[in-house]
């Protein structure tokens, strides 16, 4: 397929959240950093697209109307275009106030319950993206590539697959297979899908409509966010019921490890931490640690091992196991724990009681705050990041870059990104953290004790920190792999 007459690839990058406009997790970080890196060389004309949450109108200052859209699921809407903050990337917003401008979260209400009209909301978003991609919105602009992300965009490849004539090629990136967008079949008329879309070769999934399954079946290429996760999701243990269709598409499935945005996550330039530092000036971390201890109500003690947890408080992240071992952790001399996150209410309440049970040694903040996350990783010694499954795991990448040594379960992207401190890796200097195999208390505590043993040896510990800080987790290599997939889809030479 020839590329656009301008000789620049025209790409539409579609996501339900993009930092700093809206964020619930790593998807937003990826959706900001990857497009910026893809467009760096100037040969990709890239447009971002996301829903018009209230935050979009607060963050984007130059929005203007492109067109009115009628007949969308959920009612009429407008498409607006503006510029992403601190970039020259264009972003298109679906302004459908009845669907997206509401109190609560992006996907859940103020009580943490999924919005009952999520299928309608994100179907409207997908229809609007397909219209833009097909060149029916911006005169002279039609996408060559449409890059979709997670279930919220899953109907875009479905809608484009059934277009008449020449259509853009499509990529679906699977950030977390646990969220699939599965809904009752009686919603089918409201979603306005093409005839033939609700079939075993399309978005039908055990009698339901599945946004994600439709994309897995009909996107031209599939990617996920680490090589190990790409292998795991073709198995029953990690496939979340989608392993069959993923195994069928195995030749088109690529695992590409996420990168991190060094302009945002960089201890040498970070404005939110107590003292800036680098791999060559680790002494600056002491000030960051003392600042966290004082601000979080922990005993100020530079020598005390400070463990931090900064993730969703969910069973996926083994927060339940962490809660179960809190008493065991407190039996380790001087050990401190700082926890930041939100999630399952029962787990939140369980952690919330611990500062009173271990004053000065446990701190808990329920919620998420970007500044606090930066400060925890700059001041913490060890990141606790268990997982029953983990597509990539951006927080351990951030932690290593900040000199916080991660403890991770050896699954998905955690296996790919953290080099276990076994004898061989310690000897050759490649070790960057600690892995454990079993998703239980025994496995986690064993890794904790291994970490404490090395923490007591500052020479080895500083070697671990520096090795992690010096690893290249930038987006450049990963973006180059995505670019090769774009070129392959468009028939361009390698």
Task: Write structural notes for this entry.
This protein has about 500 residues and is of the alpha/beta class. It contains 21 helices and 18 strands. Helix 5 links the parallel strand 6 and strand 7 (about 170-175). The radius of gyration is 23 Å and the shape is globular. Residues about 1-5 have low confidence and may be disordered.
Write the layout of secondary structure elements.
Layout: E1 9-14, H1 26-38, E2 44-51, H2 54-59, E3 64-69, E4 77-83, E5 90-95, H3 97-100, H4 118-133, E6 145-149, H5 155-161, E7 169-174, E8 182-183, H6 188-191, E9 204-205, E10 208-210, H7 211-218, E11 221-224, H8 227-232, H9 243-248, E12 253-255, H10 285-295, E13 306-310, H11 319-324, H12 326-330, E14 336-341, H13 345-352, H14 354-357, E15 362-366, H15 370-379, E16 382-385, H16 394-401, E17 405-409, H17 412-417, H18 423-428, E18 434-436, H19 441-455, H20 458-470, H21 475-489
Helix pairs in contact: 1-21, 4-5, 5-7, 10-15, 16-20
Q: How would you summarize what this structure contains?
A:
This protein is α/β, with parallel strands linked by helices and 494 residues long. The protein has helices at 26-38, 54-59, 97-100, 118-133, 155-161, 188-191, 211-218, 227-232, 243-248, 285-295, 319-324, 326-330, 345-352, 354-357, 370-379, 394-401, 412-417, 423-428, 441-455, 458-470, 475-489; strands at residues 9-14, 44-51, 64-69, 77-83, 90-95, 145-149, 169-174, 182-183, 204-205, 208-210, 221-224, 253-255, 306-310, 336-341, 362-366, 382-385, 405-409, 434-436. β9 (204-205) and β10 form a beta hairpin.
């Amino acid at each position: 397929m020839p590329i656009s007459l301008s000789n620049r690839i025209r790409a539409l990058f579609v996501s339900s959240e993009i930092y700093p406009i809206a964020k619930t997790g790593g998807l937003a970080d990826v959706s900001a950093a990857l497009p910026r890196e893809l467009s760096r060389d100037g040969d990709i004309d890239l447009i971002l697209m996301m829903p018009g949450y209230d935050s979009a109108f607060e963050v984007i200052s130059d929005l203007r109307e492109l067109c009115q859209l009628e007949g969308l699921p959920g009612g009429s809407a407008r498409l607006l275009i503006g510029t992403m903050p601190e970039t020259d990337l264009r972003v298109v917003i679906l302004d459908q106030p009845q669907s997206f401008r509401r109190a609560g979260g992006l996907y859940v209400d103020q009580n943490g319950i999924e919005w009952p009209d999520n299928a309608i909301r994100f179907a409207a978003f997908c229809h609007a993206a397909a219209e833009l991609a097909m060149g029916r919105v911006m005169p002279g602009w039609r996408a060559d590539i449409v890059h979709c992300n997670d279930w919220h965009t899953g109907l875009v490849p479905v809608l484009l697959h059934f277009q008449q004539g020449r259509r853009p090629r499509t990529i679906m990136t699977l950030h977390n297979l646990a969220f699939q967008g599965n809904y009752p079949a009686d919603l089918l008329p409201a979603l306005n899908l093409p005839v033939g879309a609700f079939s075993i070769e399309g978005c039908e999934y055990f009698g339901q409509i599945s946004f994600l399954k439709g994309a897995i079946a009909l996107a031209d290429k599939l990617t996920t966010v680490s090589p190990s996760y790409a292998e795991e999701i073709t198995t029953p243990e990690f496939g979340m019921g989608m392993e069959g269709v993923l195994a069928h598409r195995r030749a088109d499935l690529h695992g590409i490890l996420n990168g991190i945005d060094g302009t945002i996550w960089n201890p040498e330039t970070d404005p939110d931490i107590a003292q800036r530092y680098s791999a060559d000036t680790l002494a600056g971390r002491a000030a960051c640690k003392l600042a966290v201890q004082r601000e979080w109500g922990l005993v100020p003690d530079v020598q005390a091992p400070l463990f931090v947890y900064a993730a969703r408080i969910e069973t996926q992240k083994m927060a339940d196991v962490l809660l179960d071992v809190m008493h065991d952790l407190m039996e380790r001399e001087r050990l401190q724990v700082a926890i930041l996150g939100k999630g399952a209410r029962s787990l939140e309440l369980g952690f919330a009681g611990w500062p009173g049970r271990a004053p000065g040694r446990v701190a808990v903040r329920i919620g998420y705050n970007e500044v606090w996350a930066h400060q925890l990783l700059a001041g913490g010694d060890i990141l606790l990041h268990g997982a029953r499954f983990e597509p990539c795991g951006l927080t351990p990448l951030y932690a290593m870059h900040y000199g916080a040594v991660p403890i991770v379960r050896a699954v998905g992207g955690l296996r790919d990104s953290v080099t276990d401190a076994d004898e061989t890796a310690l000897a050759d200097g490649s070790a960057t953290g600690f892995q454990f195999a079993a998703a239980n208390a025994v496995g986690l505590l064993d890794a904790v004790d291994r970490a404490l043993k090395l923490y007591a040896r500052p020479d080895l510990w500083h070697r671990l920190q520096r090795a992690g800080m010096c690893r290249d987790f930038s987006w450049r290599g990963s973006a180059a792999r995505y670019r090769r997939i774009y070129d392959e889809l468009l028939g361009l030479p390698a």
